[in-house]
Amino acid sequence: xxxxxxxxxxxxxxxxxxxxxxxxxxxxxxxxxxxxxxxxxxxxxxxxxxxxxxxxxxxxxxxxxxxxxxxxxxxxxxxxxxxxxxxxxxxxxxxxxxxxxxxxxxxxxxxxxxxxxxxxxxxxxxxxxxxxxxxxxxxxxxxxxxxxxxxxxxxxxxxxxxxxxxxxxxxxxxxxxxxxxxxxxxxxxxxxxxxxxxxxxxxxxxxxxxxxxxxxxxxxxxxxxxxxxxxxxxxxxxxxxxxxxxxxxxxxxxxxxxxxxxxxxxxxxxxxxxxxxxxxxxxxxxxxxxxxxxxxxxxxxxxxxxxxxxxxxxxxxxxxxxxxxxxxxxxxxxxxxxxxxxxxxxxxxxxxxxx
Length: 355
Hints:
The chain is built from 1 helix and 26 strands. The protein is mainly β. Strand 14 (175-182) and strand 15 (187-194) form a beta hairpin.
C-alpha cells in the first residue's frame, strides 16, 4: 500500500514547495539476471521500460539485475533504462544516479542522464526530435570528468557542448551524477561528485528556457567492456521534483479497464489498469477477512469468486487536480443473482481503512 500512496504523491506536488521523490530504486529488489523491463520502481511511481522504442532489436539492451546493482547483460557493451512520469506539476525536476565504472573505464564509456519526451528512440543521447534535456559524463581520456550538454527544444538543438574541467577519478570510485532542470527558468544544472573521495568532480550549468513535455527520466551508457572482470554497475537512481507551476485543472480518462487481459481465477489485486493511472487494490483494509472478497477475472469479465456472496475493488488516485466533475462508470450483467436483489455501490471516497 505504501507504493500506491507514493504513486499518487506526484500529482499532489503542485500545491507544495518541498522536493518530492517521484521514483527511487536501489536495485536490491530484483532477481539476478532479470531485465528491468516492466518492473515497478521500489518507491514512487513508474515502471522501467525495456527500451526506448517498441520492437527495437538493436544492441542497446536494457540493464539487468546483478549482485552489484544493475549492469550489462553478458557479452553486451551498452544498456539503458527509463522511467515514465509526468513532470508538468513541478518547477524543478532532478535525476541522480550512483555508479562504478570498473575495468570498463579504459574504454571511456560515457554515462548519459536526462529527461526526454518521446519513447520512439533507442538511446537517450541519440534522440534528435521533440524535447530533451540530457548530459553525457566522460569517464576517461583527455576530457575525463567533463560533461557534454545535449538540450533540444521542439527538435532544434539548443545546446551541445563540453562543460567543466578535466578531473581524474579511479575506476573503483563511486560517482554520483545529478542532473536537474528548472521548467520555469530554463536552468539546467549537473553535478558529478566522487562519493569515495568525498570531492566534487564538476558542477556546471546551462540556460535553455522553454523545454517542456518531459515525460521520461533515463540513464544509459555505451562502450563498456563485454564480460569485464570488474564490471560497471548502476548502484541507484532517484527522480525528484519540487516547486509549483500554474497547472490548470485537468480532465480526461484517469483509468480504464475492460478486464480482457487477466487470467481466469486471478484476483485483481496489485494489477495496473489497462490504460490510465492506478493499481487495483485487493480490498478496502489490509488484512480484512470478511465475506466480501476481491473480484476475480472470469471468461465474461470480472466477477465474485465461487462461494462468495459479495465482492469489491478499488482504484487509488488523487483527483484534486481535475475539474469539479468526476465520473466513474461500469457495465455489468446481474444474471441469476437478480432474484436476491444484490446492491451495487459505485463511488469516490477518502480512506482505505474500511472493509
